[in-house]
Amino acid sequence: MYHERKIQSKNYGVYVNMNKELVTTGSGADDPGELHGQNSGILYGIGVGPGNPKLMTLEAIETIRSCDVILLPAVSKDECYAYRIVRQVCPEIEDMPLLCLPFPMIRNKQELALAHNKAYETVKAYLDRGQSVGMLTIGDPAIYSTYLYMHKRTLNDGKTARIINGVPSFCAAAARLGIGLGENTQEIHIIPASYSIADALQYHGVCIYMKSGKKLQQLIEALKEQIKSGRKYEIYAVSDCGMPTERVYRGLEEAAEASGYLTIVIVKEIH
Questions:
Q1: What is the pTM of this model?
Q2: Which of 100, 129, 208, 271 has the most Cβ atoms closer than 10 angstroms to its Cβ?
Q3: Edge-first strand listing for the sheet containing 98-100
Q4: Lowest mean pLDDT: which of 13-22, 127-136, 187-196?
């Protein structure tokens, strides 16, 4: 017997039979960016939030369900944080076609470019067949996300790419701590893990150190020196925000005990 599963898409109907053979019907671009890629699929960068599946947006869930292929930026689904989050609220992802593509965390720009190009060519093959691809990412795709490489490359290739926002980890961390991030005229600085701590300490206001696990002890020692020089701070840290392994730390001494790649440190300067 021939079975079909209809996938709702904003611009055209998509049908996938049991052999995952694709048939598309209709078209119609509704924004200028889609005019370039009428005959190709759409790449979605889907933010799944920081860890608590309840923080996933309805749009993220609906987009996942509409995609033909789900791209996981990992060696396997078992090693993908984002997949584990989605599975809890969208169990049907277990039956969807998955594409696992690890994105190396390396500093060599040439090697990194080669890795990204190879990944894009893999995704492009699906887009050229008219299939929509949803790349999962923790937090929000617009904030220090691997997805952005794929997004820009897709647009530069004349195809359509869309960002589906998720709750940023530092916003969830602030909510968990019960604190505000920016009040009155306070500046907010988001510091990536690759940034120089010495340079970041020159900023005033609120500094949010993303994925700071590897540099945590260096940051703690630098903050101690700043305190000795007379600067005053409120210091917080959250590891694995929203996940079962979540831990919350308040104050410099507690923050020094934090660990894990997904550790956020929030430093608020006091005047």
A1: 0.81
A2: 208
A3: 98-100, 69-72, 133-137, 42-47, 160-164
A4: 13-22
Map tokens 């671009």 to a residue.
29
166 with 184: CB under 8 angstroms? no
Question: Is 251 a residue whose pLDDT tops 50?
Answer: yes
Gap between the Cα atoms of 192 and 214, Å rounded: 12
Beta carbons within 8 Å of 240's beta carbon, 6+ residues apart? 51, 246, 247, 260, 262, 263
Tell which wins on pLDDT, 44 or 19: 44
CA distance 55 to 74: 22
Write the DSSP string, 90-117.
-GGGGGS-EEE--------HHHHHHHHH
Distances (CA, A) of 90 to 15, 36, 45, 65, 201: 20, 31, 17, 8, 41
In the predicted structure, residue 14 carries a pLDDT above the cut 70: no
pLDDT for position 38? 54
| Confidence check: pLDDT of 106 > 90 | no
| Ordered DSSP codes for 110-142 | HHHHHHHHHHHHHHHHHHHTT--EEEEESB-TT
Question: Which CATH number fits the domain 4-164, given the four candidates 2.170.130.10, 1.10.10.10, 3.40.1010.10, 2.40.420.20?
Answer: 3.40.1010.10
* Mean pLDDT, rounded, of the chain: 85
Q: In the predicted model, is pLDDT for residue 121 greater than 80?
A: yes
Whose CA is closest to 208, among 185, 238, 228?
238
Calculate mean pLDDT across residues 60-81: 95
Instruction: Enumerate the domain spans of the chain.
Output: 4-164, 169-270
